[in-house]
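Appendix B. Raw example, untouched.
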Amino acid sequence: MFYHVKELQYNARVSGPDPRFASLLLEQFGGPNGELKAAMQYFTQAFGARQPYPEKYDMLMDIATEEFSHLEIVGATITMLLDGINSDLKEAAANSEIMRFLNGNKEERENIVHQVAMTGPQLMARSGGGPTVTDSQGMPWSGSYVTANGDLTVDLRSNIAAESRAKIVYEYLMQYTDDPYVNDTLRFLMTREVSHFKMFSAALDTIEPNFPPGVLQGDPRYSHLYFNMSNGTSARGSWNEGQGPWESGEQWVYIDDPVDHVVKSKGLSENYPVQGSKHSEEEVARKNKELSQKRSQEVKSAMAHHSNQWSAYGENTLASPKQAQNSPQSK
């Protein structure tokens, strides 16, 4: 159950109207890396974790709910940056842009065209002074932005990447406004992206094993091969030589001439040996079976065999924030 508190998590403020930056800020309202995308992604992922991993469900729902609060902060900021636009639009006959365009001189007409192009005509035409569920170019928000694969090790990595992208967008946006109040708000939102990054990273660390993502191990014959797929000077580093970021005894195998190697090995398929890994195919098959049974049991043990219910409605479960605050347990 959601409970809306009318005060914002962070008190958004603006120094004055700025329709052009309001248009840019739509990127974090309805864009592919924005707050609505994050909220819906974590909200959707939480359902699969509810019974087998209740602590991860709690985390995902908490962060999803905070993302909705961030969406409200962004929407409030956009609305304040458009302050005055709504009333101006109501002056449809006398003060409309088209009348100024028709009656103005050449310099004024060019200025109006420039302002419309910079501000985003879709925002002015559709919203009348508030945010729209689009990105800064007027593209509608899409459910295709949401990724939920049903495996926590995959979803958490996806979320770490999502927080990274959202953080850098805020970092870029801060360079497009001189409003100190708006910059303070953006800095708060950017910082919370870093906090969520840390939360998802910490949650991923509690799942063992968590590499590779999913359940099945990689084929040891191919998991440590690096193919030099370009001409010119070859770059070498920890990603293609020596021991990689894994257990001791594992080494990268550098294939300097991939064409020759593939031809001689008949497409890597004819009795191709295990290289760079100390694990045999038999060991990998055993690990696959063990981890499959472990993950399956984690889910089965948490699920009801017949009838099922989502909530237990235990003590204080339905308490409102005010009731919970006044309960004996909170004192």
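End of appendix B.
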